Amino acid sequence: MVLTDNHGRAINYLRLAVTDRCNLRCFYCMPEEGIDWLSRNDLMTYEEMMRACSLLVKMGIQKIRITGGEPFVRKDLMLLLKGISELSGLQELTVTTNGVVTAPLVPELKKLGIRSVNLSLDTLDRNRFFAITHRDELPAVMETMEQLLLHDMEVKINAVVMEGKNTEDIISLAELTKNLPVSVRFIEEMSFNGGDKHYSNLTWDHVRILETIKDRFPAIEKLKDPAYSTSYNYKIPGHKGSVGIIAAYTRSFCGTCNRIRITPQGILKTCLYDAGVFNVKDMMRLHRSNEELAAAFSDALGKRAKDGWEAEQKRNLLTGTHESMAAIGG
Ligand code: SAM
Ligand code: SF4
Description:
This protein has a 12-stranded mixed sheet. Helix content is 30%, strand content 17%. The protein has helices at 46-59, 77-85, 106-111, 126-133, 138-150, 170-179, 206-216, 280-285, 290-301, 308-318; strands at residues 13-17, 63-67, 92-97, 116-120, 154-161, 182-188, 221-222, 231-235, 242-246, 259-262, 267-269, 278-279. It has 330 residues and is an alpha/beta fold. The chain binds S-adenosylmethionine and iron/sulfur cluster. Iron/sulfur cluster is lined by residues 22, 24-26, 29-30, 68-70, 98, 120, 325-326. Residues 22, 28-29, 67-70, 96-98, 120, 158, 160, 187, 189-190, 192-193, 248, 325-326, 330 line the site of S-adenosylmethionine (SAM).
């Protein structure tokens, strides 16, 4: 079955955020003191998540990414991953993690059939890592990267580029691709910092990031971007890995967006920038049938914003708040 939205875009990818809690405090995502954490009752249970995933896979979702907050801080996550990995019709299960507690779990992830993991890593410098995340966990993250590579997993490194924080790391992160078969993706910073501090205008957009890399590696070559890719992909000749740039703020990829999100409290977002369409968990707790849920998903996709700009404009009119990415699932 193919699920499509009102703009004719195929929807085959679900990003499911399993918690808003985290063991890091990346300043671009949440304040140092954390956010107002959801209470246990506000969180979707694993049973509710399984029901939503199972229904959505029947409706046409082929790929599910587990994210958060930090997914691995939620108790018994492996049980949920196992359940989802067994859904018939699902083609790919992946995870986005900060890598702080992930290393020992890599063999189990591999056994579940997970082939690719996104690892967030903004700097290779321990002091700058601490300044960005407020935690001294760089060695644990590097251990996760090592374990993933040892287990032949595809590793995509996500690095948010931030003025005054890690622009000196752009080259060293790109250089990681020389000897390691990793894809290092530089992400434009977005305004989902969970605080009331004003998000200053984007100073490092995808063009500036690429220019910086080109300055050091003038022979860099453009790769063909895979279908539905959110990144512009490149290869430095002779390097084992690749480099990508995600124009998350500029939003140049909305035209082929194939994804929906469910937040830790069960809110369906048909765009990262929208305010949420309906609460899947609340419907389940009101004993709605699968047919009613399926109708609600279809209805939501029938009213999907054309792009992130339109979705954000509508949201600002409604709320005007700054969410934390941990409460959405990046
Ligand atoms: N905790 C996990 C992690 O950090 O990988 C998963 C959740 S995190 C919200 C998912 C991704 O969102 C991370 O790669 C993170 O760098 C990115 N992210 C968070 N806040 C962001 C922001 N304000 N702008 C751009 N990317 C952001
Ligand atoms: Fe935690 Fe990920 Fe947000 Fe960093 S980006 S605070 S690791 S949820």
